[in-house]
Amino acid sequence: MTFENIRKHPVVLALLDRGNRDLGVLGYTDHSRAHCGLVADRAGNILERLGYSAHDVELAKIAGFMHDIGNAVNRTHHAENGALLAYDILKELDMPLADRVVVIGAIGNHDESTGGAKDPVSAALILADKSDVRRDRVRTKDPEKFDIHDRVNYAVTGSSLKVDPVEKKIALNLQVDEGICSMYEYFDIFLGRMLMCREAAQMLGCRFRLTVNGGKVL
Asked: Going from the N-terminus, what domains does the chain have, and what CATH number goes with each?
């Protein structure tokens, strides 16, 4: 059972599509297959760059792609709901129990309101998910209809997550158009997520750095 199996699994895709549809109705930014694919690739890359095993990289990618399936149930407690859904899917696919526990633990702990990094896979998932800030996650193209989440994401004109295995540093670098969103608004939404990233980086033995428009913020 591999990441490729999960990426094409009809139940996983149906849950992601339904959850993303429902969040769109509620006014949330994009949580589609594209977001989950990016998170999967980024989570795997983080562990690969830091020298973790190919097995850990694969588990991080699986957790990354599945992490938002719980939105098909409800946005509230979507992490915990997603973990329970993932357990049943992975069990049917005969994933070993020890690996199942790692994946559902990562999914269940990726939300900043209830979770936190508990091991390398969960840490990589948190960093990958919370660093996906970009304007094309905003669904509406009419600025007059933007809420604060839309403005914050739309204001980000460029972003990159850099992993330095030598200096043990993980850096999120953002370019933000302050004519669209003030720094106060950005941190009103994202401070908790950035602090979660700092703790996740520490779990991986790294420092987390956030720079905005070339200046160090965290």
From this structure: 3-216 (1.10.3210)
